[in-house]
Design a protein that fits this description.
The complex is a heterodimer of chains A (58) and B (253). Chain A is mainly alpha-helical and 58 residues long. Helices cover 48% and strands 0% of the residues of chain A. Chain A has 3 helices and no strands. The longest helix of chain A has 16 residues, at 2-17. In chain A, 7% of the residues are buried. Chain B has helices spanning 2-23, 39-58, 81-109, 128-151, 168-174, 176-187, 189-194, 196-202, 209-227, 233-250. Chain B is built from 10 helices and no strands. Classes of the chains: A mainly alpha (58), B mainly alpha (253). The A-B interface holds A 1-2, 4-6, 8-10, 12-14, 17-18, 22-23, 25-27, 31-33, 36-37, 41-43 and B 70-75, 80-82, 85-86, 89-90, 93-94, 97-98, 100-101, 104, 140, 143-144, 147-148, 151, 154-160.
Chain lengths: 58, 253
């Protein structure tokens, strides 16, 4: 049974988990960052939409 | 990494939940459920054989392809749809395979006699078959948890090809804490099954013959290995007299 479990895990990883369609499940195209190396960890759009404090008036 | 640590613990808990919930369906002669694992066995599995590999996974270095993946969206947290599917799949497979091992021993070998009040009775009566089936479940579950910890080193790659072009045993050896927790966890399985009072009074288990044969094979292989050297005859004599006697004293039949 342990061997069966390991084989099932390996098959799942090779044939399902590593496929691009599985990686893209539940991920909208526009929410996938194209540059991806900023320090915002994928939440850059929030900062760009005016949530950062405006310090120009100070 | 922390996500693998959390992921591994949750998968094991889902597998145990499936095993124990499905196990409620097994009724003995008096109509009471027979647990596939005793409560202290569950505690042993969670504390001794499940947590240390999780700590080892927490020290795991980043995967080789980590910079090729898109960044993780912090809005979705740790539990993305992929992780939830993984947890359900691994937990389901783990719970079902362990359950099958119980069913195979109870119905395939011993005819399905679940005895009477085997959740607390001595193994000397009609509960010996249930106790042996529990030992099988225990050994299977612990082995699956420990090998699964190695599988978690890479979620989307085979454990035999974690780093392309590198032998898999080097990847397993790279995280020594995880390696030794897995090895020592495997070595701890016979403690709960073969130590006389501990198995029957604490874990409600009984010795099983398959693991005994494996232990006997390993001991005799070690004996043969050392006996190949001429200067190691003393060690050979020692294991021939003492080692086999130890195994024979553990033999349940």
């Amino acid at each position: 049974m342990t061997t069966l479990f390991v084989v099932a895990v390996e098959l799942y990883k090779v044939f399902i988990r590593s496929r691009p369609w599985f990686e893209n499940l539940g991920r909208e195209k526009e929410s996938v960052p194209s540059e991806g190396l900023d320090d915002t960890n994928g939440a850059g759009s929030e900062i760009g939409e005016g949530k950062r404090e405006d310090t120009s008036k100070v | 990494m922390v996500s693998e640590l959390t992921f591994g613990i949750v998968c094991v808990n889902v597998g145990e939940c499936i095993l124990l919930v499905l196990g409620l369906a097994f009724l003995d002669r008096t109509g009471h459920s027979v647990f596939p694992l005793s409560p202290l066995s569950i505690l042993w599995v969670n504390m001794v054989t499940s947590s240390p590999p999780a700590f080892g996974l927490g020290m795991e270095p980043p995967a080789a392809r980590v910079m090729k993946r898109p960044p993780h969206n912090i809005k979705k947290g740790v539990f993305t749809i992929q992780i939830i599917i993984d947890i359900l799949y691994y937990g389901l497979v783990m719970g079902i395979t362990v359950m099958i091992s119980f069913v195979v021993v109870m119905w395939g070998r011993y005819g399905g006699d679940l005895g009477t009040e085997c959740n607390r009775a001595d193994p000397d009566g009609d509960c010996v078959y249930v106790f042996r089936a529990r030992s099988t479940v225990f050994a299977t579950l612990v082995l699956e948890i420990l090998l699964f910890a190695w599988e978690l080193k890479a979620l989307d790659r085979s454990v035999f090809n974690i780093t392309p072009g590198r032998p898999f045993y080097k990847d397993l050896w790279a995280n020594k804490i995880l390696f030794w927790t897995v090895v020592l966890g495997c070595a701890s399985i016979p403690l709960a099954i073969y130590i006389p009072v501990l198995n029957s009074r604490v874990f409600y288990q009984a010795p099983i013959s398959t693991l005994y044969r494996l232990l006997s094979f390993l001991l005799q292989s070690t004996d043969n290995f050392f006996s190949m050297g001429v200067g190691r005859r003393r060690w050979h004599d020692y294991t021939l007299r003492g080692g086999r006697r130890v195994v024979q004293s553990l033999h349940p039949f």
